[in-house]
Amino acid sequence: MKARVHVTLKPGVLDPQGKAIEHSLSDLGFEGIGGVRQGKFIEIELAETDAAKAEAMVEEMCKKLLSNVVIENYSIELEWLKGV
Amino acid sequence: MKSAVIVFPASNCDRDIAVALEKITGTKPHMVWHGDSDLPQVDFIALPGGFSYGDYLRSGAMAARSPIVAEVMRRASAGVSVFGICNGFQVLTEAGLLPGALMRNAGLKFICRDVKLRVENAGTRFTNAYAQDQIITLPVAHHDGNYFADEGTLKALEDNGQVVFRYVDENGEASETGNPNGSQHNIAGIINANGNVLGMMPHPERLIEAELGGSDGRALFDSVLNALESA
Which residues, other chains included, contact B38 with Cβ-Cβ below 8 Å and sequence gap of 6+? Predict the structure, then answer.
């Protein structure tokens, strides 16, 4: 099973990198853009075959390491891998 | 005073703090590699500046989960003095020993220069040799020093006198121009509620004698010695 984790800054937490990306996009001529926020994307292959157990384990990973709950939110997607 | 410096892969201010500690306390600190599980019995534990684990994931995130930091956390809860400078401060927030988080500087640039600070609480074991509201100059060198905490946490820090150092301008005011990195409330350093864990972004260990360009950092280490002697 494969887990995909998105880590994003909480709403209200300033994201200067997102702002810089937004400015650069505007400089490149892209119009009508706003609210650019930068986050992280992490993929993890899991030996676990039970979806509920896998989700619980990845949730634990998010709380313990993958995100900083002071400033970040996370979301988890699970996908079955072929032949596993 | 017996002290230890925790050394992580890519720590780069561990020698600076070791030299400062030896000079001021007269005793060489134990240099403890992050992979070691043994931490000698000491009065003072320093987490140095640098880029532990290459700042992977988040600054200080990996170091905060290392076995040696688990031991540092046990010592902290037993009341031992723990002091994190720069990356060490990031490790302390990531480990949950101090509240809040250190984010990318608001201006996105790495900042390496002297800054002015006001000593907001001279009643701690790390600051008793400073005068209350004393203005001091120390260098900063960081990319992720933008202190963030939610409103409730900020209020608690302010109400309890846990904001120990604040960035100020030439007039000694905690203004926007005096704030190098966008930190909320111009926070440069905070202490935990128990008063034994201090984290700060500026580098007192780099300014401990006139030959280095100033000695405003020395009083911090003198304070720790004072506190230990009067204990």
Answer: B32
